Amino acid sequence: MIGGMGGWEWGIVLVIVIIVFGVGKLPEVGGAMGKAIREFRDASAKDDDTTSTETESESKA
Question: pTM for the whole thing?
Answer without folding.
Answer: 0.50
